[in-house]
């Protein structure tokens, strides 16, 4: 079943099968190029569909009346965003587990009967990946790039910049206070000069020329 494209009146390539293919590709972290190829469409088409869905969804959140022609695009954008978010959080959890050494490599369960009690016993053996600081460093560099990224500044650099800002701030405040004091003294001098030397009377206007 094809969806009618309400804006142009032409049949749209957005079919339920293509939606499922795009969502499945997004769920494993595929970018728009691969997701579009999985659905048999161009990247530009996929970007246009998702952009239309997001714009319509945002308009609805701001009180716009829903346009039924946008429903399929809104559903696509929301499903893609949800799939990518789920994939990203799962991958992030594995990165943090790798950094902490809590990522499970394999697990074995052995069940036997206790010879003394005759009760069934379950023995579980879990092997974890050795803790790797690089996984934690990777996460820090991307979540807090200003502190741990490739352009992060050292502690000493941060302190030096703070001290420099404080110095410039103190200098600027001192200069402003000095200028304010000079302006106040200038106003006082001008006021005294005006009181000691009152302005002379204006000369009488010249008589009008006679004919």
What does this structure look like?
By secondary structure, the protein is mostly helical. Helix content is 60%, strand content 11%. It has helices at residues 16-27, 32-39, 43-61, 71-100, 133-143, 145-148, 155-196; strands at residues 3-4, 11-12, 104-113, 120-128. It has 7 helices and 4 strands, in the order ββααααββααα. β3 and β4 form a beta hairpin.
Output the keywords.
211 residues; mainly alpha; two-stranded antiparallel sheet; 7 helices; 4 strands; flat; disordered N terminus
What is the gist of this entry?
60% of the residues lie in helices and 11% in strands. It contains seven helices and four strands, in the order E-E-H-H-H-H-E-E-H-H-H. 11% of the residues are buried.
Low-confidence parts lasting 5 or more residues at pLDDT below 50? 1-6
Major beta sheet summary: 2 strands, antiparallel
Number of β-strand runs: 4
Distance between the termini: 103 Å
Overall pLDDT metric: 80
The assigned structural class equals: mainly alpha
What is the beta-strand fraction?
5-15%
Order of helices and strands: EEHHHHEEHHH
Shape: flat
Main-sheet strand order equals 1-2
**For the CA atoms, what is the radius of gyration?**
37 Å
Q: Helical element count?
A: 7
Helix content: 55-70%
């Amino acid at each position: 079943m094809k969806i009618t494209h309400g804006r142009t009146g032409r049949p749209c390539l957005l079919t339920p099968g293509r939606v499922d293919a795009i969502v499945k590709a997004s769920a494993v972290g595929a970018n728009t190029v691969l997701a579009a190829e999985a659905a048999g469409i161009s990247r530009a088409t996929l970007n246009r569909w998702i952009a239309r869905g997001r714009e319509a969804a945002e308009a609805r959140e701001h009180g716009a009346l829903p346009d039924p022609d946008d429903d399929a695009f809104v559903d696509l954008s929301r499903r893609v965003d949800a799939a990518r978010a789920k994939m990203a959080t799962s991958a992030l959890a594995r990165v943090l587990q790798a950094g902490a050494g809590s990522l499970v490599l394999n697990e074995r369960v052995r069940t036997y009967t206790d010879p003394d009690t005759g009760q069934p016993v379950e023995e579980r053996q879990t092997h974890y990946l050795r803790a790797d600081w690089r996984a934690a460093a990777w996460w820090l560099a991307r979540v807090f790039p200003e502190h741990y990224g490739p352009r992060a500044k050292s502690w000493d650099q941060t302190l030096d910049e703070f001290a420099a800002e404080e110095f410039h701030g103190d200098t600027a405040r001192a200069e402003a206070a000095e200028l304010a004091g000079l302006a106040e003294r200038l106003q006082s001098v001008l006021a005294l000069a005006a009181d000691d030397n009152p302005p002379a009377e204006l000369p009488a206007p010249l008589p009008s020329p006679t004919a």
